[in-house]
Amino acid sequence: MISIIIPCYNCVSTIKRAVDSVLNQKYQHYELLLVDNRSSDGTIHLLNHYKERFPEKIRVFHEYKRGAPAARNKGLSAARGEWIQFLDADDELHPEKLSRQLDLATNSMAGIVIGNYILEWIKGKKRLHLKRPAMSDPWEGLVTSNLGITSSNLWKKKDLLEVNGWNERLTSSQEYDLLFRLLKNRSEVVFDEAFYTMVYHNRNSTSKSTDKKKLIQIVRNRINLRREIKEYLILTKQLTANMNRTIDTYIYFELKRNSPEIFDYVKEYLKQNQLEVPWNTMIKINSRIALRKLLYYIQGIYNSPSEWDLRRNLS
Fold it and tell me: DSSP string of the chain?
C-alpha cells in the first residue's frame, strides 16, 4: 500500500486539483491522508467533504504546529502503507505516477524513487513551463538540488522513520536535508526518467524588508547544508576534488544569483570564506546570471527558483 500525505494550509483554491490527481491514479491500493495545518479559509470543510465522499480511502488529521514538515510528520506517524507519497496541496500527479514508481521500487532494493518533474512558474497571467530532470549521481544531485522534489519522489516509510522524518526546525531546504540524512543512512536510490509530477509555483508579493530577511535565511540554509555534506564526505573519505569544486561552485552560484537583493551578506560571506571555483566558471556563472535576469525582466518573471540547470556551470 502507498500512503499519500497532503499537508493543507489555506488551500481551498488548489486542493481539488491535488486530490483529483490522486483519485485518478491507475494504482488504487492507497490511502489518502489530508493533514490540516491551522487553515483559516474553509479548507477543513473541504477536506471533511472529501472524507465523507470517500471514507474508505481518505482520512483527515489536524496538526497545530505550523509548517509543512510538522504536517507531513503527522501523516507519516499515522500512515499504514509501506511506501509514502508526499504531495503538496497545489501540485498534481500523472495518473500512472504511483504505479510506475512502485514498479521501479519493488524491482530494486531502493528506499527512494527519485522522480523528474515539470514546473509551472506563474506570475500573474504569465507562465513559464520548465522540465526539471534529476541527476543520476545521488550525491551530485543532492549538492546541486537536482534530486527530485517533495512531490515527485516516492519514499519508503521504514527508511523515513529510521531518520526521524522531517526536520521541523528548518524553515527551508527541508527536503534536501531529509535526502541528505537518508543517503547518510545508506538508503538506496532508483531514478524514474518519466516526468509524472506537475509542480506549480505562484510568486506572492510581500514587503521587501520581509523578503530580504527570508532570503538571507533561505540562502544560509542552502549553504549550511552543502557545508555539512562536504564535512560528511571528508569524514567518510568520499570527497573528491571534483565534488569539492561542485560544492563550492553551488555555493558561489547561490550567492551570486541572489547578490542584488542581499549584497552585503554575499560580500561578507565571500570575504570570510575561500571558495574553490575556477575563474572561467565564475565568469560563466556571472555572465549567465546577467543574461538570465535580463530575459526574466523582459518576460516579467524574475528570479525564478529554477533559473537554469546548474550543471551547465560545472562543465
Answer: -EEEEEEESS-TTTHHHHHHHHHT-S---EEEEEEE-S--SSHHHHHHHHHHH-TTTEEEEE--S-SHHHHHHHHHHH--SSEEEE--TT-EE-TTHHHHHHHHHHTS--SEEEEEEEEEEEETTEEEEEEEPPPSSHHHHHHTT-S--TTT-EEEHHHHHHTTS--TT-SS-HHHHHHHHHHHTT--EEEEEEEEEEEEEE-----HHHHHHHHHHHHHHHHHHHHHHHHHHHHTT---HHHHHHHHHHHHHHHHHTTTTSHHHHHHHHHH------HHHHHHHHHHHHHHHHHHHHHT--S-TT-S-GGGGT-
